[in-house]
Each structure stands twice: as structure tokens, then as C-alpha cells.
Design a protein that fits this description.
Elements (H helix, E strand, L loop, with lengths): L1 E5 L5 H10 L3 E5 L2 H4 L5 E4 L4 H10 L3 H9 L4 E4 L1 H6 L9 E4 L10 E7 L3 E8 L4 E5 L4 E7 L2 E7 L2 E4 L10 H18 L4
Length: 193
């Protein structure tokens, strides 16, 4: 298994370090040549969604990444990565996001919560975090809520969190994503009927 991590800006190195600690090969995507390497999944990290979108466009990565996700490539978006997956950005996830929903840096906080299909007491670090304003399709399922707001959701092979699981010493969110990747890989390798 080989996971591409968008490395244009933001908290990408923490994702790579966590994946490597789990024995998973991960590499940085900074330009189109990086993206063209073999990969089984993609992580879109936290950071500045507006900056990341501008760089995706200018580097010629926007359409190839959008097409890959639309074609079924497993993707995990955290914080800004969640925004990138939503309506008005990559438009691959049928959801609208409220950016900076918890305010500026001073509105950042840490809590624990339940994530459906993963478990209880999942650490959640929110930094100028968004939340899902609305899920626009029954295919887009809420996985976690904090104070009545959806902060994690899944739509098929797309997983998104408003929080930063890469910043906490708990690999369960990444393990869940890797299960999505494994499921996708096994479907791709199954013989045609």
C-alpha cells in the first residue's frame, strides 16, 4: 500500500510520519510528476484551503486529483482537506462546509468524541476548524458530531474530518482510512465477472 499526501502547504508531514509509524509507505505530492507515481490513496491535510486550491490550480494538479477521486480513489481530508472535498472546491463530496466555524486561532480546542464505526474517546484537535454545514446526499453519512455539528463524515471512499487526527497519539482514524484503501484495492484486483 502506498499513500500520496498532498504537500503543498499545511500539516502534511505529520500525516506522513503517522503512516510511516504504522508501516505504510507514504510520499509527498508537490507537483504533477509526484502525483503520477503509483498510489493507492490520497490524504489532503489541514492548512489553508484557499492557498491549497490556488496551488492545485497553478501546478496543474486540480483536475487530475478531482478525476482520480471521482473515479474512486480513496481520499482522507482533514480540516482544510475536508473543505477541499466539499461543494465549491473539488466538489467530490456532496456536502457544504462552514469554514473557520469555530473562529480564529483562539477558538481552537481539544476534545474526545465518538466516531461511528471506529470507537469512543477518539481525540479531536480542532484548529480554526470547519464543520459540515449540510450533507447534501444520503450517500454522505455523518460519523461524528460535536455540540450538534457534524465534524466527520464519509461518502463511499471519501473520509473527512474537521479535526486533525494526525496531531494526536491515536491512529484509529488513519486505520479506518487504510481499511477503505484496502477494500478499494481488493475490489480493483477482483476478477471481472
Amino acid at each position: 500500500m502506498r499513500i500520496a499526501v498532498l504537500a503543498l502547504q499545511g500539516a502534511f508531514i505529520e500525516h506522513i510520519q503517522l503512516l510511516q509509524s504504522m508501516g505504510v509507505e507514504a510520499f509527498e505530492v508537490r507537483q504533477l510528476a509526484d502525483w503520477q507515481q503509483p498510489h493507492d490513496g490520497l490524504i489532503l491535510p489541514g492548512g489553508e484551503s484557499t492557498v491549497q486550491m490556488r496551488l492545485l490550480r497553478s501546478l496543474g494538479l486540480l483536475e487530475p486529483i478531482r478525476q482520480a477521486i471521482s473515479g474512486g480513489l480513496p481520499v482522507f481530508g482533514t480540516c482544510a482537506g475536508m473543505i477541499l472535498l466539499s461543494r465549491g472546491y473539488l466538489d467530490t463530496m456532496q456536502a457544504q462546509v462552514l469554514r473557520n466555524a469555530y473562529g480564529r486561532q483562539l477558538g481552537s480546542f481539544h476534545t474526545v468524541g465518538k466516531v461511528e464505526g471506529i470507537g469512543n474517546d477518539i481525540p479531536m484537535t480542532f484548529i480554526r476548524a470547519p464543520y459540515f454545514d449540510s450533507l447534501l446526499s444520503s450517500d454522505c453519512q455523518p460519523l461524528a458530531t460535536i455540540d450538534g455539528h457534524v465534524v466527520a463524515a464519509q461518502q463511499g471512499h471519501q473520509l473527512a474530518t474537521a479535526f486533525h487526527p494526525e496531531l494526536d497519539n491515536d491512529a484509529r482514524m488513519h486505520q479506518y482510512f487504510l481499511q477503505i484503501v484496502l477494500s478499494h484495492c481488493s475490489q480493483d484486483s477482483s476478477p471481472a465477472s
